[in-house]
Amino acid sequence: TQQNQCVFKLLNISFINCSLPCYILFILIGCVKCSFDNHHHNGTRRYDYCVLGAGPAGLQMGYFLSKAKRDYIILERNSGPGSFFNKYPRHRKLISINKIHTGRQNREFNLRHDWNSLLSDKADLLFKRVSSEFYPPADAFPLYLSMFVKELGLRVQYGVDIGRVRAVLSATGRSYILTDQHMSDYTCSVLLVATGLWVPQKVEFVGSDLVEGYESISTNPEDYKDQAVLILGKGNSAFETAQSILGTASRVHMLSSSPVRLAWQTHYVGDLRAVNNELIDTYQLKSLDGLVEARLEKIVIARRKEKSKRRSGGKKKEKKVQLYLTLNKYIQHKEEKNSSDVTGEELPGYHIDNFSIRKPYDRVIRCLGFRFNFSIFDSSTCPPNSEKAKGRLPGVTAWYEGKNTPGLFVLGTAAHSRDYRSSAGGFIHGFRYTARVVHRVLEQRYHSNQWPSTNLLTTQLQSWILKRVGEASGPYQMFEVLGDVIVLRGSHCEYVEEFPVQALPQFSSLSGHEISNHGLIVLVMQYGKKKIDYLGRSRAQTDWTKAWKSNFLHPVLYYYDTLPTEEEMKLRPYGWPLPRPKAVHHMVEDFLTEWESPVSHIQPLRRFLEHCVQTDLRAFYAESCFRSSLTHRKPPLFCQQGYLKQKGVAHSSQLWQHVHDAVQMPTEQEAGTSGADHAFPNYLAQAGASMSSGLKLDF
């Protein structure tokens, strides 16, 4: 190999001139040099995987690549990980919950309520180590990410500002070349873009140059003392800004094209959170603040100076710049008009004397969120703008690969177009799971490693499903996006966890698992589709016979006899995560999110599974299995896979001693009876078992 040739060449030189210690030194230098040459060929650094960005999504993918021992590098333009959080949110409070105390020790369950930690195999590498606050300070997040990098030994290269990304084709296939600020190149077979959203979203209108941006405004409330402020936008950054100045500004108005969407009504964590909505109180309780709707493209921000007034001392009071909002349709001679010069006839109050926002403002602030940085990609690599989110996000496939850019995957917030305004893929507690999805796709495609699965006996399926719906965090956070796929194979099945359900038509190629003629079941978590009074008396459904009417998050199982096609996926009913199935089962919503009630949850689930697999899935005691084996040609599946294969109670001398002791301890009532030996039935009674098996088999 090239490395061995380097070592032998150095050894030949050292034999002539050096002693034994020199030989060792030359060998070490040679190994290091050859290793360096492998990654630095002709001035270009080469890797199998390049991760662009050391934010939470980039580091999450770095963990999976590191664990799989892949050749990768994480490139970060700043001097540390998670640099976005050094500045944003501007008012330094995160709205991702950090619920440390859940009353449970189950780590997987606790991730349902920990929205900041990344996934790893280190049980204590959690965000709670840097903050115990329910809504943590933003400064804690870069600290956590630094700890994540250090303790896992991730390969991150800081100070690399990639300014151009292009694709090249060669005999070995497509590869990506990344050029940094020093004109150094990095070449990789797979590019994983985790740059997030950091370019401020702007809307061009007349007078937009007079508007301040969320990214540059003062965060000192005193700077807004007795000022009238207009905020463009009604998202969390807009309300966060409004909330910080409520106590000092004279009035705060908020304007956007759509009404406020409340997260607790839409179940979308990107909508307005209660922690930021104090202005709704002051608006509805009539305390000078308010919300209005207008399309930003149709407004005009005009500058107008007040007439100077004389003070009591005879001196003129300094003129104060005032900003007026008017509408484009009121502006005369638009081609000649300067945005800072409006007449009284061009103000809305002249046309509508009670126009909502006819009074002037001291400041207008833009809080419209952020967009993906498309500028670094050339025509051969640039993913298309998604139709969702006003084109702010790149368009990606259901497995997060850029459309028309094979080998380029988008991670994290930037990949949110797949579930925009419907699930949690734009947030840490969602994209930590979609990053794992991408890694599993990569492992199957480039290394022929099947998507991890659990082989189960069909009789174990019900218990496994109950375990998953009771604790699994991935489908719980990424509801209606990630689901568990159960590949039925007769007496056994394969349980594939957290597959992107919109990619179901490509299941076999992405996962490496083939669908059999027994069909498949897909388990997803989903909310009800009916709009209701979310705090009204009838908001919850408790009757298991009407489980399909559940409004809150609940498990839904879809059974298909064949894999849905791409066409069926496109034509699925509006609002459904999946096409219409052969059979569907809703597990009724539960106030405690614990789907373990025998009558309301377990029994209906078992009957649905029995319908899908066409066999009896009840569990039986050994006595019942023994009886059915003598009286039926085909005993229940549970007996076939357990009792008849001697897979009952595991052999243990201590356990059998316990059974023996239980048999030898009759109750007072038993001591007074005579006749037949009741030891065995009494032991069943002590175990809480029914004396009658209640066996009803139709064979």
From TrEMBL:
Coiled coil: none annotated. PANTHER family: FAD-DEPENDENT OXIDOREDUCTASE DOMAIN-CONTAINING PROTEIN 2 (PTHR43539:SF23), FLAVIN-BINDING MONOOXYGENASE-LIKE PROTEIN (AFU_ORTHOLOGUE AFUA_4G09220) (PTHR43539). This is FAD-dependent oxidoreductase domain containing 2. GO terms for molecular function: flavin adenine dinucleotide binding; monooxygenase activity. InterPro entries: Auxin_biosynth/cation_transpt, FAD/NAD-bd_sf. It comes from Dicentrarchus labrax. The keyword Membrane applies. It comes from the Eukaryota. One of its GO terms (cellular component) is endoplasmic reticulum lumen. SUPFAM superfamilies: FAD/NAD(P)-binding domain. The gene is foxred2. GO terms for biological process: ERAD pathway. The chain crosses the membrane at residues 7-29. Keywords: Membrane, Oxidoreductase, Transmembrane, Transmembrane helix.
